[in-house]
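Worked example

This section walks through a single chain of length 238. The input is the sequence exactly as stored; nothing has been trimmed or padded.
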Amino acid sequence: MVRLQKYLAECGVASRRACERLIEEGRVLVNGAVATVGQSIEPNQDTVTIDGNSIAHDERVYLVLNKPAGVVTSAHDEFGRKTVLDCLKGVRSRVYPVGRLDMDVEGVLLLTNDGEMANRLMHPRYGINKIYWAQVRGRISKEVLEQLAFGVQLDDGMTAPAEASLLGVESNSTQIQLVLREGRKREVKRMCAAVGHPVKKLRRIAFANIEADGLRPGEWRYLTDSELATLRGITGLQ
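Given that input, the structure is written out below as tokens.
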């Protein structure tokens, strides 16, 4: 027996939390009856559907996309905008993004149908590192870099210690690198704005040490065995 929301996540429907919401909305049926959160099922015996569509285990898929700017990090968009799934030509399995990047942000985005892996990669408890390149307004001082590294007070609390380094200075902008281990919404933009240097351009160059080198914007590849082994190790899914 397995909890229904865990089973749905393992089938690649969405993260476990999102699957709980689907159940709460009454969209999930088990053997024709409306399911409840926390309900247990027998995968080899019970029939599970979402909005009338049968759910079954798919082969696990893990890939990295070099997300281009102007693309929404979502499986579907109510306004008809291009989503990251539109970039995945040739991917036959249903996958969904691990976390989010703003529409104007470029760079590394992982996608998978492994709900438990995705859930752990997004959970602050595991401290997954995310490396960003940012071009910000103005010339950043050494003191401001130290402040970014020490922690910045935001409306939802102080940010965790990070790594901040100077990459280059121009007449009215600065290029920096930030290594974060939290998963707050729009964290880099909010941190930089809080210290008086709003972001002009932002790119994520690594997630859990996985990079998109060699991939043009909009291109993707499957993770290597070595990369997948690393992800399993840091998330405790050996």
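What to look for: The mean pLDDT is 91.
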